[in-house]
């Protein structure tokens, strides 16, 4: 079934990011640009993400994911390097009817991020039918 492309207004809305590596480092700035209230859960993060936390741009909970972390989020991004954790995060979000993106397996998540680019004030997104 073909995907449905959608724009999200995230200003002031909580977005949970589980994982603190390179994928999180790529995705968090775009979430901040959209005005999201980013909450990051990860025992360790990149220096860039730590800097964002130190400057109050994101909230970082320095610990592993635990059930209940999705509560209150509008969008969840599971971006760890552990497929089991990513699966648990997406399962919790899905049960709570929260959109979730699973970075390691788009086929196993209800949503995924498109390839995107900007030209002036236009944003262009591209989704393919398979795993991006």
TrEMBL record:
SUPFAM superfamilies: NAD(P)-binding Rossmann-fold domains
Molecular function GO labels: ferrochelatase activity; precorrin-2 dehydrogenase activity
Main enzyme class: oxidoreductase
Reaction equation(s) it catalyzes: precorrin-2 + NAD(+) = sirohydrochlorin + NADH + 2 H(+)
Biological processes annotated in GO: siroheme biosynthetic process
Record InterPro entries: Met8-like, NAD(P)-bd_dom_sf, Sirohaem_synthase_N
Keywords annotated in UniProt: NAD, Oxidoreductase, Porphyrin biosynthesis
PANTHER family: SIROHEME BIOSYNTHESIS PROTEIN MET8 (PTHR35330:SF1)
The protein's name in its UniProt record: precorrin-2 dehydrogenase
EC number: 1.3.1.76
Keyword NADP: no
Pathway given in the UniProt record: Porphyrin-containing compound metabolism; siroheme biosynthesis; sirohydrochlorin from precorrin-2: step 1/1
Organism in which the protein naturally occurs: Actinomadura bangladeshensis
Top-level taxonomic group: Bacteria
Pfam families: NAD_binding_7
């Amino acid at each position: 079934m073909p995907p449905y492309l959608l724009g999200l207004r995230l200003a002031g809305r909580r977005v949970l990011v589980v994982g603190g590596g390179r994928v999180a480092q790529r995705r968090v700035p775009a979430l901040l640009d959209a005005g999201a209230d980013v909450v990051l859960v990860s025992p360790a993060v990149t220096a860039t993400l730590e800097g964002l936390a130190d400057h109050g741009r994101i909230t970082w909970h320095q610990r592993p994911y635990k059930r209940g972390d999705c509560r209150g989020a509008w969008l969840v991004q599971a971006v760890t390097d552990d497929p089991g954790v990513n699966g648990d995060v997406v399962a919790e979000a899905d049960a709570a009817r929260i959109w979730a993106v699973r970075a390691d397996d788009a086929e196993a998540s209800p949503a995924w991020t498109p390839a995107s680019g900007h030209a002036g004030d236009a944003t262009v997104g591209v989704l393919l039918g398979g795993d991006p």
